[in-house]
Every structure is written in C-alpha cells, then in structure tokens.
Amino acid sequence: MRPITSCEPGEPVVVRGIVRSVTLRPSTTVPALEIELDDGTGSISVVWLGRRRIPGIDSGRSMVVCGRMTCTTENPTIYNPRYELKPMQS
Q1: Is residue 51 within 8 Å of residue 72, measured between CB atoms?
Q2: Among residues 78, 13, 68, 24, which one has the least CA distance to residue 50?
Q3: Among 6, 62, 65, 87, which is least packed, fewest CB within 10 Å?
Q4: Are 43 and 20 in contact (CB under 8 A)?
Q5: Which residues, 6+ apart, have CB-to-CB distance to 42 below 8 Å?
Q6: Whole-model pTM above 0.70?
Q7: CA distance 1 to 21
Q8: pLDDT in tens, 16-35
Q9: Is domain 4-85 annotated with CATH 3.30.360.10?
Q10: Which of 39, 37, 42 has its CA nearest to residue 22?
C-alpha cells in the first residue's frame, strides 16, 4: 500500500483510507456509487458504475481499494475497484 499522494495516473494502486463521503450519482442510463477515500495524505474518488449501494460502505468505514488510478478530471479516481472492508475503529 502507498500513500494516495504518491500514486501516479495510469498505474495500478492499492490504497487504504477512511470513507469521508458516500454519494449516489443518479443517471437515466447508469447509476454510480461514489465515495471519497482519505488516507491522511490526500483523497481519491472511488466509483462503482451500475451500483446504487454496496452493503458496509458508509462514511467513517476503513477500507482498502485496488485498481487503476485515472485522472480524466482534476480529481484522481479509481473505477470499479476490488475492495476490502476493514473493521470499524472505536
């Protein structure tokens, strides 16, 4: 795992962080679930196309995501990553 700020566009990445926000981007064609994942060095958008909800993914949840980072906008994004939910911190 690497800090989000050290990841480069186009490369496969594995990052761990805390979910800061969860947003449903409704669309007439394809819905998308988007989260903001923050690891303390920076944040990245994580998007699952075609999903309205994923059980267990809520604000404050710790998780690891694995995928290819893109920068088609000014915000780094990973689309449809593999993910692992981590235990909730007290």
Answers
A1: no
A2: 24
A3: 87
A4: yes
A5: 3, 4, 5
A6: yes
A7: 21
A8: 999 999 998 876 778 899 99
A9: no
A10: 37
Beta bridge partners of 82: 66
Q: What is the 3-state secondary structure (H, E, C) of the chain?
A: CCCHHHCCCCCEEEEEEEEEEEEEECCCCCCEEEEEEECCCCEEEEEEECCCCCCCCCCCCEEEEEEEEECCCCCCEEECCEEEECCCCC
74: amino acid identity, one letter: E
Q: What is the pLDDT of residues 64-84, one digit of tens each?
A: 999 999 876 678 899 999 999
Q: Are 22 and 37 in contact (CB under 8 A)?
A: no
The Cα 30–Cα 85 span in angstroms is 25
